[in-house]
Amino acid sequence: MNRVPLQQPQSCGPWELKERLGTGGFGNVTRWQNKDTEEQIAIKQCRQELSDRNKERWCLEIQIMKRLDHVNVVAAREVPQGMQKLVATNDLPLLAMEYCQGGDLRKYLNILENCCGMREGSILILLRDISSALTYLHKKRIIHRDLKPENIVLQQGEKRLIHKIIDLGYAKELDQSSLCTSFVGTLQYLAPELIERQRYTVTVDYWSFGTLVFECIAGFRPFLPTWQPVPWHNKLRQKLDNIIIVYEDLTGDVRFSEHIPQPNNLNSLLLEKMERWLKLMLKWSPQERGKDPSATPSDCFSQLELLLQIKLVHVLNMSSAKILTYSVSDDETVANLQLRIEKDSNIPAANQELLLEAGLALEPHALATQCAIDGRRTDFPLVFLFDRSSCVYEPQFAPRTLPENIRFVQTDPNYVLAYSPLRRTCGQAWHTIRSLKEDWQRLQQGQKAAIMSLLRHNSSLSKQKNEMVSMYQRLIAKLDFFTTSLHIDMDKYQEQTATGIGTVKVSELEEEMMQLQPDIVDVQRQPWRSGELHGCFTFKFCFYVLCSKTALCRQRVMELLPKVEGVVQKMAESEQVLMSLQERRQRELWNLLKVACVSKNDLAFLCAVVQLENHTPMQYVSTLSMESIFLRILRKWRRCWAFFKTAEVIELHWRSVSMCTPRNLKLETLSTHSPLMLTGCSSDFLLLKSTTSSFVLVVLRSRLLSTHQSDSL
């Protein structure tokens, strides 16, 4: 439609006429806006000179529009009060519809970006929307008969563009004059049986839909778009069912092909499936069109739905710059995907590192669908494949295959092309340049993902280092505390401290990580100053040097991580052992202190111990306090411990504190109650039993004690 400017403003109550959206053979369409609510509607008005048959069709279209309700079919609105009398120039009713601000599909296809076809995501969205609308109409026993880009409008939704079908239920009468005057650009979307004025079914919409989809993929119509109706029809009758394109090459020869031509924006996997589907939609015979007896399900829309449900994963191999596309199931894991990648890239699965754009690595046990796209998404997320075994990246990329028209021009630069092939050749040249630019942009995205991954690992390494240093300092403090509090027990802990934390290992790891930091900072810097321009080879050399540095730093970080984690684990184990020993020592000391809390009857027991140990007269011992007796015993044992290198520890149980008196002390030989071999020990050593407490005493051989009888208390 061509928009016509208004000569003078016109209003109907709160509604104000804004512009004429288009004028054609059917009449005109205008856009109105409510000044109060800012709601916009499109008013369609038919020409007065329509035939009676077309007037009936017009009234039928209004009735059909009012009873339809589908998101991909333009919705009818109520005509504002008073507008029928103001606008209508005849007795035919007006048709009010929702206004779609995105324009029609033809306008979208004419954008330079779509000169060689729409983007893959946009094509999938178009397929989903229009197939859903046609399925809905056919269930309502409605045939559109005039499906083309001009009859599909775009409305911006919350997340994406929504395609809607317009001009429902209205078709022009096809006679010889209309065939000759309006064939180009309109009638090429019509099915052959409509042009031949034969009986038709819903399969006429299949032909129109297939033609429209082909144009959205390749950027031009599939069957001799510049030919006149009669030779076009005669030549097209020669095509077989598997032929989906008939075109005229630059030399003027007509060629038949069953493949979608290059360039286009579909990946290889989706391109193959679309070719099979288009062969169903573009069959010449209306009885066979849209059916595949060898497939289940056999109808075209069911097969298209299966195609749209495919989840695709695009993997960019950073070593070859090739994009590998895989269809994944809902329960397929990343590990299974890596095995498939190994067959295509020759990179072992163990050496593969799959990174998302944010630098996050895909875990082998995770689902592959987390990075997949389907027919509901328009974006093109990539997974970047790196080889862990290689830290050097070189320009070994395979060049793109140039389109046929560009190769022809390179072969014969002086050949003068007609307007239509020249326009297509220029579009292919622009598309090729844009594709090369996007290839480099994707490589830069992969490099950014590698840097993000490096920074993420470096952050984890820094946290581990800080935790290691902090834990090391805590361990040193606890070790110092433990050492100062254990003057007597230090010899027993020599073996533990000798196999504990080693400061050399921590210092070496910290020094190695500090040496790595300048390399990581250097990787994040640009290899050239901001604003400087360099040649292609300089830029390429710097790019691969930076890629190699990034990979090398990542490898060094990954090597350091397990070392730091191992040291941290060993320090944690040593800390637990140290605290266990400290708790044991504390329990032993407190058990000794419990002796000071015994009753008055225990004094006699302690006196007996002092007398036995030191051969002191009982009369003198009885004059001492309980604390003095205990401290004298402890002091004596500590001197013995410091003097002798060897000592044996046994546990003495004090069974009944109230019964422990010099009269009923029970003497037993130590050899019968201790696992130690006490050869030569006299009965001076007693086994004391208690039901309320236990403590550890240092017991020395009696023969050694006899040498120190001269020591006084």
Give a nutshell description of this structure.
It comes from Astatotilapia calliptera. The protein is of the alpha+beta class and 713 residues long.
Task: Give the secondary structure arrangement, pairings included.
Layout: E1 11-12, E2 15-23, E3 27-34, E4 40-46, H1 52-67, E5 76-77, H2 83-87, E6 95-98, H3 105-109, H4 120-139, E7 152-156, E8 161-165, H5 176-182, H6 192-195, H7 203-218, H8 229-236, E9 245-248, E10 254-257, H9 268-281, H10 300-308, E11 311-317, E12 322-328, H11 334-345, E13 352-355, E14 383-387, H12 404-411, H13 419-485, H14 494-498, H15 503-524, H16 536-593, H17 602-614, H18 618-622, H19 626-643, E15 648-655, E16 690-699, H20 702-706
Write out key terms for the chains shown:
Ubiquitin-like (UB roll); elongated; Phosphorylase Kinase, domain 1; 44% helix; four-stranded mixed sheet; Transferase(Phosphotransferase), domain 1; alpha+beta; 713 residues
